[in-house]
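Figure 3 (text version): structure tokens given as input.
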């Protein structure tokens, strides 16, 4: 299948519009642990004007505002923007696309994106936009999910589907390229003109009662993984869930599983001249 940016954008947009209502109680619990390291990487400080791109319900922007920053959020899903406005009336949330930011050049002292960039059809174009809206010397920091080999929540599901279902069953357009290795992030930051770049793996845990809760959270709160799960036959899904329960038992802490998750935290700075 060939890469068609508008097909990717339409697929992602429809998915996030659907996921918005359940996001807070499902997938947001996996993305939340990475907000503090993300804001630290962007050196958020009081009075700094900051943009949270692909903000979803606005958690990173709200956390920046609570640190005294003047925070705005942007997301292409109207349903997500409505949630951000309802949950965080102290931030300005705007509907717009990461590849075409509706702000003048040099408007922000920092831009961050928590698990947004890998959903954008052309992350390199988005990063060029991140650089454009930054003031000289401004900081950019973003997270994307690390590859499944380093990310147990994902590998549990992919491996169980490979054993009992069909890894190729999802009706989803191919993404705009692999963006889950530190080198991918460093290369893209460099091409967008950022200096002082770095990319490191950050680890956290996703607390969930069992495999059924993991599948429910991924089905309700994601797009591409939700499409893969939805495409599995009902009988296979039972075996997939039982397989995940068996393999995840080693992560049990009392009545919860603490499933390891890992992100790449990447950062760069817009040169001053
Ligand atoms: C995994 S959610 C992350 C939400 C939030 N940043 C968080 O910390 O949980 C991905 C978000 O990216 C947004 N998104 C995807 N593609 C986008 C694009 N091209 N432009 C703007 N937002 C986009 C989705 O609407 C969704 O809210």
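Below: residues designed for each position.
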């Amino acid at each position: 299948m060939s890469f068609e940016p508008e097909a990717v954008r339409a697929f992602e947009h429809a998915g996030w519009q659907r996921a918005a209502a359940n996001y807070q109680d499902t997938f947001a619990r996996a993305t939340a642990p990475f907000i503090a390291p993300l804001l630290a990487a962007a050196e958020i400080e009081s009075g700094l004007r900051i943009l949270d791109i692909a903000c979803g319900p606005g958690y990173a922007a709200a956390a920046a505002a609570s640190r005294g920053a003047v925070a705005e959020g942007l997301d292409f899903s109207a349903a997500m923007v409505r949630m951000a406005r309802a949950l965080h009336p102290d931030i300005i949330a705007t509907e717009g696309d990461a590849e075409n930011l509706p702000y003048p050049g040099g408007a922000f002292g920092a831009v961050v994106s928590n698990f947004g960039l890998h959903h954008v059809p052309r992350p390199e174009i988005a990063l060029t936009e991140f650089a454009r809206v930054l003031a000289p010397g401004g900081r950019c920091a973003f997270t994307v999910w690390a590859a499944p080999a380093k990310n147990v929540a994902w590998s549990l599901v992919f491996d169980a589907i490979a054993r009992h279902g069909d890894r190729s069953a999802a009706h989803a357009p191919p993404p705009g390229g692999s963006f889950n290795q530190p080198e991918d992030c460093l290369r893209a930051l460099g091409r967008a003109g950022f200096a002082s770049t770095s990319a490191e793996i950050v680890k956290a845990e996703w607390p969930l009662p069992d495999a059924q809760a993991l599948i429910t959270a991924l089905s309700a709160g994601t797009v591409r993984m939700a499409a893969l799960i939805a495409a599995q036959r009902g009988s296979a899904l039972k075996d997939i869930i039982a397989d995940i329960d068996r393999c995840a038992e080693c992560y049990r802490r009392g009545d919860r599983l603490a499933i390891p998750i890992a992100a790449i935290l990447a950062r760069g700075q817009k040169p001053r001249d």
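Residues 32 and 59 are 8 Å apart (CA to CA).
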